[in-house]
UniProtKB/TrEMBL annotation, chain A:
Its cofactor is AMP. Heterodimer of an alpha and a beta subunit. One of its GO terms (molecular function) is electron transfer activity. InterPro entries: ET-Flavoprotein_bsu_CS, ETF_a/b_N, ETF_b, ETF_beta_N, Rossmann-like_a/b/a_fold. Residues 23-211 form the Electron transfer flavoprotein alpha/beta-subunit N-terminal domain. The electron transfer flavoprotein serves as a specific electron acceptor for other dehydrogenases. It transfers the electrons to the main respiratory chain via ETF-ubiquinone oxidoreductase (ETF dehydrogenase). Belongs to the ETF beta-subunit/FixA family. It comes from Azotobacter beijerinckii. Gene3D superfamilies: HUPs. Keywords: Electron transport, Transport. This is Electron transfer flavoprotein subunit beta. The keyword Endoplasmic reticulum does not apply. SUPFAM superfamilies: Adenine nucleotide alpha hydrolases-like (SSF52402).
TrEMBL record, chain B:
Keywords: Electron transport, FAD, Flavoprotein, Transport. Heterodimer of an alpha and a beta subunit. GO terms for biological process: fatty acid beta-oxidation using acyl-CoA dehydrogenase. CDD domains: ETF_alpha. This is Electron transfer flavoprotein subunit alpha. The keyword Electron transport applies. Its cofactor is FAD.
Amino acid sequence: MKVLVAVKRVVDYNVKVRVKADHSGVDLANVKMSMNPFCEIAVEEAVRLKEKGIASEIVAVSVGPAQAQEQLRTALALGADRAILIETDEELGSLAVAKLLKAVVDKEQPQLVITGKQAIDSDNNQTGQMLAALTGYAQGTFASKVEVAGDKLKVVREIDGGLQTLELALPAIVTTDLRLNEPRYASLPNIMKAKKKPLETVKPADLGVSVASTLKTLKVEAPAERQAGIKVGSVAELVEKLKNEAKVI
Amino acid sequence: MATLVIAEHDNATLGAVTLNTVAAAQQIGGDLHVLVAGSGCSAVAEAAAKIAGVGRVLVADHAAYAHQLPENLAPLVAELGRDYSHVLAAATSAGKNLLPRVAALLDVEQISEIVKVLAPDTFQRPIYAGNAIATVQSSAPIKVVSVRTTGFDAVAGEGGSASIEAVKGGSDAGLSRFVGEEIARSERPELTGAKIVVSGGRGMQSGDNFQLLYRVADKLGAAVGASRAAVDAGFVPNDMQVGQTGKIVAPQLYIAVGISGAIQHLAGMKDSRVIVAINKDEEAPIFQVADYGLVGDLFEIVPELERQL
């Protein structure tokens, strides 16, 4: 079966971001960018399905600026067969991305779409669910285990109290949680090979999708700073402070 | 203008987070209705009717809603949502699963994890793992919003007297089937609602060593959490994870033991009132946010702490 994986270019997870002085957003100039960690897990899961002989083709897709080609090349180096970049310089919201992905799903007709559960920049946790709604497919969100059995998909999901197991009809949408797998590193030969794999670029307008937004970011601020605390010398001092100064125990 | 709050529940009891979601809805203003969708959920509807400030409780009782599968539930919520200016749910795993599907069916953008209501169309929400706070304004006809429950104080669960009305509908989309679940049972308070949280990280070295934290937690009546490192190492189950991708907590007291304080973890606990860090590495970033820091070997400090409490 064909598997579609969506990947997003985001600020690297180790970077401590700074808010711009004019409060228009976060300063991303000269900041290290990477593939969103949850998307890496999505790619890895697709590649594992291919290694098991379940997936026949893996198509990686990204919505983003021209530089998002780097993240698609990474996906190709990890084992995706070809890639599609929906190129836009605008920062799109989840609904617009879901609509663009829907257009790709209509064209490619994958049996399974894997996305990350959330991007670590916007922290929305929406796109997979929205894509499921638009396509009318079942959704297996926050997946920590995925098994294909015939025309069904068994998904173990991470929920607040523990784990939940669902059986979904294919085609379906899965969003990855951290525990789904441990992504591999791309080897140098695979990185070289990835340069020759096909990467198609399209514009949102080519897909007939309007990306107009009803959401406006008025301001981005730094969160309230916590006051620097003190170091205590002993457990007795700590307990005394918690009891008498902070009054929390 | 009216707001629909989707109740969180397990068909028998109303989830406490619903009270925080109602608090956010009250700040938006207007009439306030609560939807209880489930199977055999009349006790939940009665509990929801007692929440202070709720005008009406809509009950959709149908086998197809038993496990709140979004494929079955989202069409109902979207249908009902058309009559409201706002549709709200708690940003829990259930709310996060359902709400974006509802928003897409309504063809509106969703706003995730608000921590403040500035106006009925303007909200604040953290982005970049809580390292920035965005103020967003929505011109969508229906505002679909998930609520970070630690950002809003719960309203009273008693004193209200809402009317209870049954909602028609209910069909199985046939796309998904509930197979089973494994719920971790614990005597300790629930992590997101606990007044005191004791969390362990990679420094705990093994799952067995978490017993040290459990003993301290039991003396304090605290919940026990963990960093992603401790979860990934298999020390504890993942529903104990505190962080950007785990649970968000804001207790009165948070005690971080053997946790370095990565961005991911801080995102989940830095709104705690008092933070205590116990770590042998003096340079650990956790000390930059801790009100009280104690540098030393946790295997000596934690048992000592237990004795002195």
